[in-house]
Amino acid sequence: MIKRNLLLILLTGLIGIAVLNASSSDEETTTISDINNGIKVESLKQLNSINVDQIKTDFIILNLWASWCIPCQNEVDELLKISKQSNTTVIGILVDDSPSNGREFIKVNKISYTNILEEEESDIVLSQFSWTGIPTTLVLDRNLIILHTLNGEITANEIIELTK
Fold first, then answer.
1. Whole-angstrom Cα distance, residue 116 to residue 50?
2. 3-class SS at 107?
């Protein structure tokens, strides 16, 4: 009887710890990593769909996304706000999705910033830095050097703070 009660108490404690950990991880959706800091994303210059030499803003925000990704869907309005900042240019990179799904997503969400939809072009860029999933957002300076890597859903305020 005592063993059973002790086992129930331990099990209840473990469940409590698991619930607390799950709820605290929901509050922090974005993590900033320096794993890519200092890497130059020269491959952006190889793309036919964009001309990075014409970008005159201080920062380029690269956002890896897919139409089926719920956090990616949630951050569209935030990316639109960021794209309206005078010192930033937003470029989306479609990952693990079809170009037709990407075009439909862009149309439905009235996305006005540039997006790389073709897998060949996406792969050229993605091969230059480390990423573990979507959404992932990179903050680059005007020389295409990665300053920050954000994993998870971002907010406009987070990016605005990083680009001050």
1. 8
2. helix
Is the distance from CB of 73 to CB of 154 less than 8 angstroms? no
What residues does 148 pair with on adjacent strands? 139
Taking Cα atoms as reference points, which of 113, 116, 20 lies closest to residue 64? 116
Q: Is residue 12 part of a domain?
A: no
- pLDDT of 31-51, one tens digit each? 888 888 899 999 999 998 899
94 forms beta bridges with 65
The CATH number of residue 113's host domain is 3.40.30.10
Tell me which DSSP letter residue 64 carries.
Answer: E
| pLDDT tens per residue across span 60-115 | 999 999 999 999 999 999 999 999 999 999 999 999 999 999 999 999 999 999 99
Cis check: omega of the bond before 71, within 30 degrees of 0: no
Q: What is the DSSP letter of 44?
A: G
The reported pTM is 0.81
In a domain, 53, yes or no: yes
